[in-house]
Amino acid sequence: MPEVLRKPSDEPDRRSQDRQKMILRVGLLEQAGKPTFCLVRNISSTGLQVKLYSSAARAGDVRVRVADENPIPGQVVWIRNGNAGISFEESVDPATLLRLQQKLGPVRRRSMPRVKATSYAVMRVGGRMVAAVLRDISSMGARVTTSRSLEVGTLAIIRLPDLPELKAHVRWTECSESGLVFETPIPMQVISEWIDGRIRVSA
Predict the structure, then answer these.
(1) Global pTM?
(2) 28 burial level (CB within 10 Å; 0-12, 13-18, 19+)
(3) Residues 84/170, Cβ–Cβ less than 8 Å
(4) Which pLDDT score, from 0 to 100, does residue 134 have?
(5) 42, 46, 106, 116: which could form a disulfide with 202 (CB 3.0–4.6 Å)?
């Protein structure tokens, strides 16, 4: 078969060569003091594409956060069929957002971003009811302040307004503050709708 010569216009899109697939990496878009969960689908040094779980995202300035990395400033340049394209203000190293293994050591590091929320809650721990205040939350877990210290490894059931009961394990505790890991993750659509309009961006 004769060799096919490419014209310059036939060159593949350089950006598509640069992109790296990122399957099931949850991110957080922060716009005008309001967070929106998303799923990062691919990323390059100049931008990324995400699936949105909320209609709150708009074109314009945005900060993107993956895991507990620092937010990356950028611009939402298009929104279509529940997806969005974001252009970074400055070039970044995509590997920075892929460092999940480095985050699994310290128990207080997170592989998924959380948003700050203040809500009263009730927990059932060892057959006793414990008053609690929610401090931040993601689909995978939460941070709470309780009326008494919780023991690491304890099974707890937490009740939050407008959400079903959540079974969780105490991952860490420090005085009256504890980190919880849910037995079953909250569906992204459910947690996204729950946080809309009632929370502020986690610092």
Answers:
(1) 0.65
(2) buried
(3) no
(4) 94
(5) 116
